[in-house]
Amino acid sequence: MKPLSVEPLAVDLNCDMGESFGAYKIGNDEAILPFITSANIACGYHAGDPMVMQRTVQLALQHKVAVGAHPGLPDLVGFGRREMAVSAAEVYAMVVYQIGALQAIAKAEGAALHHVKPHGALYNMAAVNPQLAQAIAEAVYKVCPEAVLYGLAGSTLIDAGKAVGIRTANEVFADRTYQQDGTLTSRRQPDALITDPNKAVQQVVRMVKENKVKSQQQKDVSIQADTVCIHGDGSHALEFAKFINETLTKENIQLKAV
């Protein structure tokens, strides 16, 4: 009798990219791309512009990294991290618009749109607001139904994606702390970010291997990790990208796009 084969653990490593704008450079996309498996490319609302979008798609293709749209709220000054009083209809329209823009650039460069991941405040709002989550899911379904919708693990956005019949990926964060309900600690709180790279990577390893994360209330929370977000705009972003890539590989966790 043959022994049962065990599927190796695998996870996607994604990073927000294409966040430069005009004369302003943010992040170190070209250096980080070799260490990730999917790129979330800003679509011009919270960051990015057409030339930056085009260049980022080209770089992703060179490094065989999956191309994803990263739609946000129309707030360049606030980098899309400030909540806005937007209706579900507005969210639907702005997400359709942004997906369409990145999809057109990707097509012109010979790339397919692999996923859609909302950015910043829009992401967090959709994680708990059913109407906004449905608007985003329907926008993805109408424009690019083959794309994967990335959302906070176990969130309302994941539920909405499943309800409309598109593929979803539960996303976890390397450098963010969690609350008991599975949401991220607000960036307005002093303990929102994990600054120790060792702690951040060990949190990821545990989420992938054990499907658990320790909340700020010091209790374990069940979590599914299909894709891990790292941020590309920090001062040590490149070093961390290398470190998490190497550590996950050493832990026998395969890195590949969802």
UniProtKB/TrEMBL annotation:
It comes from the Bacteria. Its EC number is 3.5.2.9. The keyword Cell cycle does not apply. CDD domains: LamB_YcsF_like. It catalyses: 5-oxo-L-proline + ATP + 2 H2O = L-glutamate + ADP + phosphate + H(+). It is an enzyme of class 3 (hydrolase). SUPFAM superfamilies: Glycoside hydrolase/deacetylase. One of its GO terms (molecular function) is 5-oxoprolinase (ATP-hydrolyzing) activity. Gene3D superfamilies: Glycoside hydrolase/deacetylase (3.20.20.370). GO terms for biological process: carbohydrate metabolic process. Keywords: ATP-binding, Hydrolase, Nucleotide-binding. InterPro entries: Glyco_hydro/deAcase_b/a-brl, LamB/YcsF/PxpA-like. Forms a complex composed of PxpA, PxpB and PxpC. Belongs to the LamB/PxpA family. Catalyzes the cleavage of 5-oxoproline to form L-glutamate coupled to the hydrolysis of ATP to ADP and inorganic phosphate. This is 5-oxoprolinase subunit A. It comes from Pontibacter cellulosilyticus.
